Each structure stands twice: as structure tokens, then as C-alpha cells.
Amino acid sequence: MTLIKCGLVQLSLKAPTDAKISTIRDRLLDDHEAFVERAGAQGVQVICFQELFNQFYFGCGHDEKWFSAAEKVPDGVTITRCRDWAKRYGMVIVAPMYEEEAPGVYYNTAAFIDADGSYLGKYRKMHIPDGGWCREKMYFKPGNLGFPVFQTAFGRIGAVICNDRHFPEGYRALALAGAEIVFTPTSTGPAARLPWESEIRTAAFANGMFVGAPNRVGDEGTEMGKYFGASLFAGPKGDIVAQGGDGDELVVAELDTALMREMRQGWGFFRDRRPEAYSPLCQTDIM
Questions:
Q1: Which residues are catalytic?
Q2: For residue 60, what is the domain's CATH number?
Q3: Mean pLDDT, the chain, as a whole number?
Q4: Does residue 280 lie within any of the structural domains?
Q5: CA 261 from centroid of its chain's CA atoms
Q6: Strand 240-243 relative to strand 150-152, pairing
Q7: Residue 194 has pLDDT above 70, yes or no
Q8: Mean of the pLDDT values across residues 69-83?
Q9: pLDDT-derived band of residue 1, with 50, 70 and 90 as boundaries?
């Protein structure tokens, strides 16, 4: 398939942050369902939600209550609903959420659901930040599943999550594994506003592929500050294909994967790679 119609959802939290965790989850699921319905009406084939889409972003604090927000993947409430949406609208869904693998073992995860509602697998965030306003190491273990690429009804897709985007190796690994679109769900505030577009555009250009990055919007009352949204799709030319504003929004773009061949042939980034010279990148005894 050459043309893939994709969507990104950026959505603010409407429930109070001191509400029951189940109340916050259910309100966000209901709000996202409305956007999925809207996407279905527009013919969207693949949709991605923001990081930890079914909860308040709790990574700025040290509150143990948020451990109970984690769910089994794919057997929890959230993925069960997402699978229903996928089947109902014939839509591939990338659902980033808090995963409990075993008692006391948690990951920042993106689940992949095919257009028939079948569960394809998951990616777990690899680079867990800790410092300043961001204290995610309390809540998440580093990912242990590598950088998987999933063949869906509409194309080959993968993901990196939020802080992962600052490490270009993940994008390159996914591109080498055949990804056509890499989704980058985030919860990004003002501190990282300046490099936002440039990082996503560079990842797309350097790998000759598409990158879709949904971000939160609104102020959740944390040290993160106000989430600025600006969710975007970047293309193989390094261009912005579509971008949202700073409010609740469905960002839709039709992505032409034929451009990948054109850009890779023209620029030769994969042809000119020199992996035999990159061994320092894999050394663990420096820096």
C-alpha cells in the first residue's frame, strides 16, 4: 500500500487529578473514543494516542498511588476497549499506556492493535529519564523488547516513546527493520519546546521514513508545565506533513510511502552507512 491515512490524537485531561484512578482512566477512554469515531468518519487507517494516554502524566512526582494505574497488556480494561474500537472502525491503533508485567514490574508501553481488533504486540520505552522535573525511574523499568516492527493491515509500523526520541539509534533500528512509519507518543512540556519539530523532522529525514508524534495538551498542574501539543507528522524529505495546535485535536495526514524509495535512492543514507566503523557506539565502558 502506497498511501496510508494516519491520525494523531492530542487530548487534555478533563478529570481532576485527585479523582480515583479508574475515574481518570474511564474519562480519558471516553474522550479518546469520540476522537476515534471522528477518525473513522474521516477514513483514518492508523491512529496513535499520546504517551500514557489513559492517565494523568504522573512521572513528575513520587506518589505510589499511581502504581495501581498499571494494567496488563493486552488483558486489561484499556486494551480491551482499544481492540473493540479497532475492530469497529477497521483501524490500526497504537495505544501507549502503563503496563504491569508482574507484581511490582512496570513498563511504559505502546500496544499495537490491528484493524481486525487482533493484538499484535508491544514496545516498551527504552530510555527512562530521571532528573530535574522528570522522575520516571520510580515507575518504569527500561524496555526489554528491543525495537519491534509490526506488519499491520496498512503498513509496517513501530514506535519509540517520548524520551527515546533523543536517542537516534532507535529510529535507525526501526528503519533498518523495515518500518514505514514510526510513532513517537510523548508527554512534552515547555522545557523541550525548542527542539520539538527539529528532532522529529531529522529522524524522518535521516531514515527516509515517516514519523508521527502525538503530544499532550493542557496543564495538569505538575512541574512539567503546560503541554503545548503541536503534534506532527514529518516525512522522508524532513518536511512537516501536518501539525496540530495547542488544543484538543485530531491531526490527520495521508502518507505516501513511495516517497521513501525516492529519498533513500537520492540521498543514499542506507547505502553509505559504515556500521563496521560504529563499534564505539556499542561500547559500555565509555561515557
A1: 51, 125, 162
A2: 3.60.110.10
A3: 97
A4: no
A5: 24
A6: unpaired
A7: yes
A8: 99
A9: low
